Amino acid sequence: MAVVETGAAPTPTVGIRPRKPGRGEGWQRRLPLLPALIYTVVVTQIPFLVTLWYSFQNYFFNVPQPAHFAGFSNYSTVFTNAAFRGSLVRSVVMTAASVIIAMVLGVAFAVLLDRKFLGRGVVRTLIITPFLVMPAAAALVWSGPMLDPNFGLLNYLLAPFGVHHVAWLSTHALGSVIVVMIWQWTPFMTLIVLAGLQSQPSDTLEAAKVDGAGAFATFRELTLPHLRPYIELGILLGSIYLVNSFDAVRLMTNGGPGTSTTNLPFYLYQQVNFAFNVGGAAAAGVITVILTIIVATFALRLFARVFQFEEAGV
Amino acid sequence: MTAVPVTPGPHRLREMSGRAGWGVLAWIVGIAFFLPVLWMVITAFKPESAAETWPPQFVFKPTLSEFRLVFSGMGPFLTHSVVATIGSTILVVLLGVPAAYALSVHPVKRWRDGLFFFISTKMLPIVAAIGPLYVIALKAHLLDTVWLLIILYTAMNLPLAVWMIRSFMLEVPRELLEAARLDGAGRIREISGVILPIISPGLVSTALICVIFAWNELFLALNLTVTNAATMPMYLISSVPQEGLYIAHLSAAATVASVPVILVGWIAQRSLVRGLSMGAIK
């Protein structure tokens, strides 16, 4: 780099990197981190600060008067609101049910795919495909061609078992939405667990076999403990995405019938888009964030454990 | 568990039939999981009148008419989706590589906190801030622009990307970095000459996952764009009319919207697996 002589006080250390890890070294280390850090702080934190501010304002999109201070009234409304509490509970149920069932299926499928058989690559391809399908497309295809009471494929396939023209989305709405979420996320769990299975050292498995351990005992005593960090990672990432599930609810049931499938994301969407209640939605959002932080604190502890595995491995 | 058979003959036989049994089971599971996708594609080739019948029709005269209809109206939506997806993915990589470097190869003092901060932003539900986000976008004159989507999708994917790229960088052998340093390579040359060539497969899988999430995103697009930046998922929704037969048309639109990501995912399967398991846990 060309250094222009300015005639000002010379800085002789330019170009000669000091050996001691002083402040300059610290900033050199920090510099590459700054763009991403600043970007993330600005884009993800500012909206939440604004949310906090609006949660104390009385502000409706459809009312011409500007926002004005409302104290805690938005919060008291939200807390006494059964619709908010209901959507909170349904969010927890949807996320927990879909993540747990997807993980159980994921472990089973991964064990299947870990064996050698004809066309293994093709079967793996088939199983991962639901994860790649656009969630909006999945929701619409399930609600129409698959689950329709009059011409849906599922009723046709279940007809031999005595199922006749069930209107899944009206009678089993919550279950139907959860099924689609499971269908989309089982491949994700399968792939993570499969990576865990394939990283298992084969000699310990051989040794267990020589010792006469049965397949099930080997799986429980050796494989499952080895898979634990993978399963934890899968559950954590799956929860992060599934707790925000919106597409399936909006496109399959529109939150109904009644409010039987209204989860938090859909409730907040309704508050902003149809009730135009920015202040109320913001208060509900702040409460959601606080609850999430409580849950996330536990989740982050899991991440800390993942670190320990990583450091033990390095 | 029953006793292990002693004679080698039946043992082998049992093993072989057992293997075939597992294979058959795996195939059944695979086909069952794929069935909705297959049904979507089949329905897309039906004429509308054949799509809504009981019993469902498996033999019919395939037609491309619904696809033609889908293609004819899709132009602007496709452009917006492609620009938002590729733009945000490039930005994620440009921001993510240096950040991951500062959290792994020459880590800052509090790299643990840094990493936790990134991943913790993923836990804040974006839906909670959607109203204020709308107001901010409105005041910044970004509402209904592709720029807004690029900005938000970058923030959405950056934490996971930093996490993944970092774990790939940790796998770069220390000796190579030492050698480069002895040759007098600076930070920039260390990244471009040594690290990037080694982690490029990991970088590809990271970018791929960003592409999938950006391409498929609906919530932000639905709330913050109308026409000037509406994306493929929104085109898909608009293909559902209030009345009349629409199942074949819907299936064709869903197929067209999903196929790019499905094909890319199939082709890059191995790198996708690598990316999802993050290399972080060995």
Structure explained in plain terms:
The complex is a heterodimer of chains A (314) and B (282). Chain A is mainly α and 314 residues long. Chain A has 14 helices and 2 strands. A two-stranded antiparallel sheet of chain A has the order 1-2. The radius of gyration of chain A is 27 Å and the shape is flat. Chain B folds into 2 domains: 8-44; 72-277, MetI-like (MetI-like fold), CATH 1.10.3720.10. In chain B, 74% of the residues lie in helices and 0% in strands. In chain B, helix 1 (8-44) packs across helix 11 (247-267) and helix 8 crosses helix 12. The two termini of chain B are 31 Å apart.
Lateral arrangement of strands in the main beta sheet of chain A: 1-2
Percent of residues in helices of chain B comes to over 70%
- Counted beta strands of chain A: 2
Based on helices, strands and strand pairing, what is the structural class of chain A?
mainly alpha
Strand content of chain B: under 5%
Helix and strand topology:
The complex is a heterodimer of chains A (314) and B (282).
Chain A: H1 23-30, H2 34-54, E1 57-58, E2 68-69, H3 73-79, H4 82-113, H5 120-132, H6 135-146, H7 153-158, H8 168-171, H9 173-198, H10 202-210, H11 215-242, H12 247-253, H13 264-273, H14 278-313
Antiparallel strand pairs in A: 1-2
Chain B: H1 8-44, H2 48-51, H3 65-102, H4 111-123, H5 130-139, H6 146-169, H7 174-182, H8 187-216, H9 219-224, H10 232-238, H11 247-267, H12 269-277
Quick structural gist:
With 314 residues, chain A is mostly helical. Helix content of chain A is 70%, strand content 1%. Chain B is 74% helix and 0% strand.
